[in-house]
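Hi Y.,

Following your request, here is the sequence exactly as I used it, all 268 residues.
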Amino acid sequence: MKILVLGDAMGLSGRLAIKKNLSKIISENEINFTIINGENAADDGKGITKEISDEFFSLGVDVITSGNHIWDKEETTKFIDKEHRLLRPANLAEGSPGKGFGIFESKDKKFKIGVINLMGNVFMRKTNDVFLTAKEISTKIKLKKNVDFLVIDFHGEITSEKMAIGHYFDGLSTCVVGTHTHVPTADTRILEKGTAYQTDLGMCGDYNSVIGMNKENSLKKFFKEKDAVKHFPSNGAGTISGVIVEADISTGLAKKVYRLIEGGNLVN
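Below is the corresponding structure, written out as tokens. Let me know if you'd prefer a different format.
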């Protein structure tokens, strides 16, 4: 079983890279299930629309996760209840539209894959306690009982929260990956009890930028220059960044995990 998990799709650059490369990646690597974080996929790098969601699904994405920008496009609150393949963080306020976790089928319909979307508490929008939420959900979706494989996307700012969640789900999930910082970390590994882990997947977008935003304008903002404008995405050549996890069918745990860096100017 091969699961592909991709970092935050950033604006037009990220979408074009996905459109150009994803089908080939899925085919060449014999991917059975694909997840992407889509919360920055809109043209302005904030939020996601129904049209973009539908395009991702048509290109081979099975589930879209998100984070603190999930409600930046008003239309998302209207269609997310009907589109169960688009997740929002599970620890958002009770009564929020959509769902924070779900159970889905692999492309060949042979396996059930659970996906949990969580968001950190530190330096993020106000949410319910992510660790209490994680503990509660872990009683509802159990590996090899309710699902064959289980993936957690932890959308967060600080590494310690992500690492702690990784250790909490070690042995209870196929993989735990972090999103949000738009910079891939070099700690890809399998934890002691068999769960694949990476602190942050990075982004699918233009790395000749400041975390996906136009670098010239970002510098002007940091230097507080008067002609600086609102942040906007850099639309150069995009890189696809994520991981491929090879999982054991009998245990649901990881056998191998390796980083995927394709296209653009980021070197693997």
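The chain has a mean pLDDT of 96.

Thanks again,
Q.
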